[in-house]
Amino acid sequence: MGKSILMLGGSRQQVIAIKKARELGYRTVLCDYLPDNPGQFEADVFYQESTTDRDRILEIARSEEISGVLAYSSDPASPTAGYVAEKLNLPTNPLNSIEIMSVKHLFRAFLRENGLPCPGAVSINLRDDQIEIADKLSGLRFPIVIKPTDSSGSKGVSFLDSLEGLDQAIANARRFSRNSILIAEEFINRTYPEVIGGDIFVVDGVVQFYGLMTCSRDAALGGLVPVGKKTPPAISDTDYDAVCTVLQELVTKLGIRFGELNVEVIIGEGGVPYVLELGSRAGGNMIPVQLSDASGIDLVAANVSIAMGDVSTDLHWSSKGSNSAYATYVVHAREAGILDRVEVPEEIARHVYRSVWYKKTGDEVSVFDGADKALGILFLSFEDGDQMATICSRLCDDIRVVLAAESSGA
User: Fold this and answer.
1) Predicted confidence band at 153 (pLDDT cuts at 50, 70, 90)?
2) 302 vs 14, 70, 180, 260, 309, CA distance in Å?
């Protein structure tokens, strides 16, 4: 086979990148600490190693004589990818910038230092006592959001109207924190109700691909965890252009040279775009696949190719004014139990053109409080944005996850 690419992470969502790399003729070397990861059955070589162990991954990269490294859709592995690539003089973005994007309190500090829109925020060290934490929060305007600084998929996020419930919010965030640092930030009053998400793709320091989308959430579960994406986003041209402008400014100031980045933006008062996330990797919940469908550009292949130094693909595209209407829905449970079936009404099913399932009948399911609790993903297409908005507004209620006890009692 040809050149070797080091793939960091072999989860169910990362398998697609491993397969694509092999399709493109590259020898794939996979590292993942889980012994049962599905990626090992697709890769040419597998090492059961933690993707956050930089020195061990560097040792493997040298021994395997890799020509590129990719942490596809993985926040924890992205800094490792940058570290290894810098050490071996392979294509990469600046490691310092990757680290800033990967940790929320560093990213908020970068926004403030560079005069970019940023909500009021303070860092909380889990070693702080209650008095210290309360003192830090006294300078914030409630309501606030508390979350881990090094986690993704909205895991460990809590919303507080007051200090009541603070202990529970900290305990919730602690479960998903590796660095023992949390962030508390002021809730932004939105002029557009939905979060703007999606992915952008940078080539030679310029954002060529603007895959902006709107994020769906399940109000019955608190409305914090995304349960799907819709494109094109139903925002004004003025708001769309403002989001694109601030994202390009961020890319420039961070010195990002290439690659797919995951974004999360809120349109605040006065149309001000607040960038909550600029992830140093492709988005989860198969966002690159959805955007590939909408744009006709193979973003998974682009991720692999550009990590190997190939920038020949034309990635110019914008979801603004796109004639296609695509959505994803993350099938999820509002209660824990044993899965019996998932009921999708015919009026919704006829719009489903692809489905990916992680759970089957008889499997245990958990309350959906993070992307890792998904049962599967449905891909839907529509005639236009209006039809998409109407149908997607009911998905959380119309698609029923039936549990075994519920089924037997029916």
Assistant:
1) low
2) 14, 11, 35, 9, 10
On the question of pLDDT at 109 being above 70, the answer is yes
pLDDT of residue 19: 98
Name the nearest CA neighbour of 150 among 87, 79, 54: 79
Q: How many CA atoms lie within 13 A of 178 on its CB side?
A: 10
Quickly count helices (H) and strands (E) in the chain: 14, 20
Instruction: For residues 170 and 239, give the distance between their C-alpha atoms in angstroms, rounded to a whole number.
Output: 34
> Does the pLDDT of residue 291 top 60, yes or no?
yes
pLDDT number for residue 410: 47
Helix runs in 34-178, H state only: 54-64, 78-88, 95-102, 104-113, 130-137, 166-174
Distance CA 39, CA 3 (A): 19
| CA–CA separation, 38 and 237 (whole Å) | 42
CB burial class (10 A; 0-12, 13-18, 19+) of residue 87? Answer: middle
Q: Which of 284, 293, 294 is nearest to 318 (CA)?
A: 294
Whether omega for the bond prior to residue 233 falls within 30 degrees of 0, making it cis, is no
Task: Please report the sign of the dihedral spanned by the C-alpha atoms of residue 375, residue 377, residue 378, residue 382.
Answer: positive
Residue 250: Cβ within 10 Å count: 23
Question: What pLDDT score was predicted for residue 1?
Answer: 58
Would you state the pLDDT for residue 369?
Answer: 84
Say what the pTM is. Answer: 0.91
Instruction: Find the radius of gyration of the CA atoms of the chain.
Output: 21
Across 135-186, the runs of DSSP E, i.e. the strands, are: 144-148, 158-160, 181-186
Who wins on pLDDT, 133 or 407? 133
The pLDDT of residue 179 is 87
**Residue 54 token pair:** 């930089």
Rounded to an integer, what distance in angstroms lies between the CA atom of residue 282 and that of residue 348? 28
Residue identified by tokens 């933690």 is 50
pLDDT, tens only, 58-68: 999 999 999 99
